[in-house]
Specification:
Blueprint: E1 3-7, H1 11-20, E2 25-29, H2 43-50, H3 60-63, E3 67-71, E4 77-81, H4 100-104, H5 110-119, E5 122-123, H6 132-143, E6 149-150, E7 153-154, H7 179-187, E8 191-193, E9 196-204, E10 207-215, E11 218-223, E12 226-229, H8 232-242, E13 255-262, E14 276-280, E15 283-287, H9 291-296, E16 307-314, E17 321-323, E18 326-328, H10 333-353, E19 361-362, E20 366-367, E21 393-395, H11 410-428, H12 431-437
The structure holds flavin-adenine dinucleotide and iron/sulfur cluster.
Flavin-adenine dinucleotide binds at residues 7-13, 29-32, 79-83, 86-88, 90-94, 167, 197-198, 230-233, 235, 239, 368-369, 397-398, 408-410, 413.
Length: 441
């Protein structure tokens, strides 16, 4: 049977491993370790903050190793998950299809979204669980003509305790994350090596013959017939560039800014995060208790239950880079204009809730939806294979997205990864290996 290496176990990598295993003997290489949710009671970070010991978001890894925070050279806080499940384990579980940009270049993922609809438990029926603050906010959004929509969530309703800790890792396992796809691939025979950081793709005569990776202090080379990079929007471009394959300076990240105010017993931190959202031109608005700001931002006073916070998530301009040397990313003047408009809308919502402008405070500008550094174009619509890649090297993560979604991207990345996987199977698996898993092919 032919062999394939998949790098990364997040949204794209896990979907890819599941798609390929059976037709290929799949080896999955993951930089992080097995994911564990943050087990700490909130009182511990609160105490550390009061003592002045939490002052830099990058310290989050000391409390919660699966969450990695970096800063762009311009100071933007950038978040990702490192470990099995990638960033999906620290996601809020939002499940939206956002493939307008892909459709515009001729990529139709209807079949893959339909498959995901069968594989992932998704439901927007959680309004009966919302607390009073969320309900009141929903009414204000409606009064203002903002057309709020309950957010479809990837989670098992029956075991969700509505604890509000989705971004800290679900303690009950109710939230779906990509470890479920990874598990399916492993059950089917795929192998996984964790704590294995891929550094570069090994190329010979214009083809990928494997990858070089560090396991602890040891460098190892793994060979395969096909290599798929799914190390995420921050990880994949670094591997490509270290392998001599240039990317584009088109990094997007979907920056998030929370606008908050004091509100007794808001209890948003114990309610379903991002329970509903409003789609606007260039951004979305959604209620969201921002743990990162609460832990590290001095403007967020102790007493999580007494903060009312709204998230602005921007669809930012494709401008920025990530490389071995670090990340260059700042808001462009256009991004700042859109953000200012969104802040005004949030101020109006908070005012209608009874919070004065003088009481409002901001969260820390942060972002966690990186991608766009080797985007698909109309020319790649059939192959889903950017032309500058060797023919047996593929990508399966947000790096391929042609534009910032300004919206939760997990489902769209997985649909894309599935399609790339089907193309790899069609073009690189031997007919014998296909007949076992896919009778009729
Ligand atoms: C706090 C937060 C909440 C979010 N909530 C949502 C949400 O509700 N819904 C939604 O759709 N999206 C959400 N997102 C975004 C979403 O989780 C990511 O955009 C998505 O997981 C990206 O998928 P990916 O496959 O591109 O990368 P990732 O999921 O980040 O996976 C990349 C994987 O590659 C591994 N890796 C990195 N470098 C290497 C290397 N060199 N060698 C080996 N392995 C490597 C990483 O450890 C990781 O496992 C959220 C993001 C954040 C930060
Ligand atoms: S609200 Fe709590 S139990 Fe429900 S999915 Fe999120 S973390 Fe899991």
């Amino acid at each position: 049977m032919p062999t394939a290496i998949v790098v990364g176990t997040g949204a794209g990598g896990a979907a890819m491993a599941k798609e390929l295993q059976g037709a290929f003997d799949v080896l999955v290489l993951e930089a992080g370790r097995e994911f564990r949710p943050l087990a700490l009671d909130l009182r511990i970070p609160e105490r550390l903050k009061k003592l002045g010991l939490l002052f830099d978001e990058r310290q989050i890894r000391l409390l919660f190793p699966a969450m990695k925070v970096q800063q762009s050279r311009q100071g933007m806080v950038l978040v990702r998950g490192i470990g099995t499940g990638g960033t999906t384990t620290i996601a809020t579980g939002n499940a939206l299809r956002r493939d307008r940009g892909l459709k515009a270049i001729g990529i139709d993922l209807d079949a893959e979204f339909a498959e995901l609809g069968r594989e992932v438990p998704i439901s927007a029926a959680h309004q009966n669980l919302w607390n009073d603050t969320t309900r009141r906010l929903f009414s204000v959004f409606e009064e203002m003509g903002l057309a709020p929509q309950p957010m479809p969530k990837m989670r098992r309703r029956e075991s969700c305790r509505n604890c509000g800790r989705c971004v800290l890792g679900c303690p009950s396992g109710a939230k779906w994350d990509s470890r479920e796809s990874l598990r399916a691939a492993l059950d089917d025979g795929a192998r996984l090596i964790t704590n294995c950081r891929v550094r570069e793709v090994v190329l010979e005569n214009g083809r990928a013959v494997g990858v070089a990776a560090d396991i602890g202090a040891r460098r190892r080379v793994f060979n395969a017939d096909v290599v798929v990079l799914a190390a995420g929007g921050f990880g994949t471009p670094v591997i490509l560039q270290s392998s001599g394959i240039a990317c584009e300076p088109g990094l997007f990240v979907d920056p998030v800014l929370c606008v908050a105010g004091p509100w007794n017993d808001a209890l948003q931190h114990r309610d379903i995060p991002m329970p509903f959202a409003t789609q606007r031109e260039g951004y979305i608005l959604s209620p969201y208790f921002d743990y990162l700001s609460y832990f590290f931002n001095r403007r967020w006073a102790p007493g999580a239950g007494n903060i009312l916070s709204l998230m602005i998530k921007l669809a930012d301009t494709r401008s920025g880079t990530v490389s071995e040397r670090g990340i260059e990313k700042a808001l462009t003047p256009e991004d700042t204009r859109t953000l200012t408009e969104a802040v005004d809308v949030c101020a109006d919502i908070l005012r209608r809730m009874g919070i004065g402008k003088g009481e409002m405070f901001f969260g820390t500008l942060n972002a966690g939806h990186p991608g766009g550094m080797l985007p698909l174009t109309g020319e790649d619509a059939k192959t889903l294979h950017p032309r500058r890649l060797p023919e047996n090297l593929f990508l399966a993560d947000a790096t391929l997205l042609p534009e910032s979604l300004g919206n939760p991207p997990i489902l769209t990345i997985m649909a894309l990864a599935k399609r790339v996987g089907k193309i790899i199977r069609r073009d690189f698996a031997s007919p014998d290996s296909l007949s076992g898993k896919y009778p009729g092919l």
